[in-house]
Amino acid sequence: MIVWNNAMKARTVRYAASCACCFILLAFVAAEYAVAVSDEKNAADGAPREIGSRAPKTGEAASPLRIAAIDFVVPGGGALYYKNYYYGALFGVLKIAGICAMYYSYNDWRYQRSLYFAAKRANAELDPDHKLRFKVPGGGYKTVEELHHDYDRSAQNITFAVLGTAAVYAASLIYTLYKIDESRERSLPTFEISYGRDILTGTREYAFSLGCTLRM
Amino acid sequence: MIMSGAIFCIRMMARTNDRLRMMIAGAVIALPMVFVSCIHDPVGGGYYLDVEKIKGGEKPTPPAIQTVETDVADPLVIIITFTSSGAIDPDTGNNSGLYYFIYYLDADPAFFEDEGEYYNSVYYVGYTSEAAFNGKDPKSVIVGKVNPAFHGALYFWMTSYDGGRESDHSNVVSIVIP
Q: What's the rounded Cα separation, in Å, for the pair A140 and B114?
């Protein structure tokens, strides 16, 4: 008979979260691939290229820092700012899942640590010569070594949760910066490095200049 | 900053269609609830000092080895005779559910640096149970057959096991194989 203990629950949650993330990413890749194939097919069919308006965009120019801050504070905020609700929802759900995973992993680590140290103390005080098996809340028995293994694994889960969440935040930020650049491609660049040099033969002078421009 | 972010999020949600809005709201509400429902509070340092939380509860007492000798018919077969009347599981008050583990070593275990070495599976040779003897006491059990090439002393000791906890070791009895 299978005992549905806490370790199995935690493992199931992790697998379900991993599967959901993989599924979402695969769906995302498949959608992008379908769009690319469709564009290629249209080009091959000789379909007329869609011509859009080339009129300069009007309205208040978006500040990259402001949008990046919105993207950081509001899950999916950067994509939602550019009215891309699909990506906004995707990044929003992934970020909330990442934050929840970090919160859960941290609390699970504290719980596993408390179980390990309580078992270690009890084994040392009650019967140091034998490996006692301790009842784990939720079902089953584990030795101190097994509880230590769970404690290590919970610490490892924090690392995975932090790395996964950081990856989602980085992807969201890159997407937002890409959209910022896209929206400003017909206006002045948001970030520019200029370089110039000149040799003035009359005064035998060598001029060199390096400039950096950041539009906020 | 958080308030302005929340207002921005609500404004964006208001622009989306009903189905997407429901999906986002459902995910935002459900995800934290799923994770939070799996969280346990840490336990105190003395949580496991309660024997009720240890498999087997209280530790049983060990049996006593009476003799270790070779079989009359085959001098390489070793027979242990022990009594289990003193082996009691405190949780049941009797020894009806006990198992008896047998260990041996070809050196004196008195020189073990760690008492826990007495229960190392390296020295384990086999087991028998109280139920196998129908209350007969003392009990004799064949441990095994010695390799004809072996000559020297063998040291035997036993423990009792209640399915969760193992007792302290019994007295150590040796036999010399000529």
A: 29
